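Support request, please re-run this one:
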Amino acid sequence: MLCSINYLHNKSQQSFYLCAMSTLNEQIQVLTAEINAFVPQNAAELEDFRIKFLGTKGLVKSLLGEMKNVPVDQKKEAGQMLNAFKQTAEAKYEALQNEFAGADASANKIDLSLPGTPTSIGTRHPLRVVENQIVSIFEKIGFSVATGPEIEDDWHNFTSLNMPPDHTARDMQDTFYVAQNPDWVLRTHTSSTQARVMETQELPIRVICPGRVYRNETISARAHCFFHQCEGLYIDKNVSFADLKQTLYYFVTEMFGENTKVRFRPSYFPFTEPSAEMDISCTVCGGKGCNLCKHSGWVEILGCGMVHPNMLKNFGIDPEIYTGFAFGMGVERITQIKYQVNDLRLYSQNDVRFLRQFQGIY
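Re-run finished. Output below.
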């Protein structure tokens, strides 16, 4: 016979004094009714239920612990009642736990019929867009792409391009020199790539050389300490200035349209002779005059000329057999004309509002 059953709940001690099996049965019936009637409002109340009945100091464990005080002849009957009580508590908790889990899953269920969250699509940088357009145009007429290092030695950046150490043409470009070794510089033009191509590639040569270049200039709306160029080089037998003009006419037509007018003006570059600068009719005003063309109707887009014989000799090319032409343009300048960008600093400020204007352009 059970003389006493002690259990703890909410840190307060409660005692059941059971002097007969009928008293144990009554207590289990009361607790079972409480279990069956329990309806939690939230997960916290369900956790309190678990602690009260199934916790390490809960009612189920406390009652089972009193089995040692039950007389031997009554252990079987008492054990069956206590096991049934334990199973009822566990079944109730498991059912309520599954119910709450199902409610959470239903609340978090994805409705596939709803429209998706839009994803912002990025865009290429405008300079990369224009550079790709330039390269693509020249690739269509047989030019291949050549690239070179941005840190160059004096030979490839100056001397081989008909600019010996005492040549005044070096003053045309404010150069960034590497402090540890003044014979190395940040390249001032992609002509250094042309020099490397002439040094290593077999004739004939027909390349377009895009890349970033550096000059020690004050940053403003019209100038920057770094910018981008695309330079072209063609060397073969019987290459003439007429070939140069027709190549550039084709480029202008493809880039700016068939109605664009072109003019050449004499100029000077140390690595070409004769040399010229090429202008096109203003794409904004159509040649009538505006702020972009400074009311002249023309805008300059590139410099060009026939490869200087001295430059050919520097790379072991016989100028009596081979001739060639070269040209170079600033990518920022072409972008400014094509898309009417009025400040060079916008290209490197990473202003998303500016960059989004070129979305969808490739």
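The chain is about 35% helix and 20% strand. The two ends are 91 Å apart (CA to CA).
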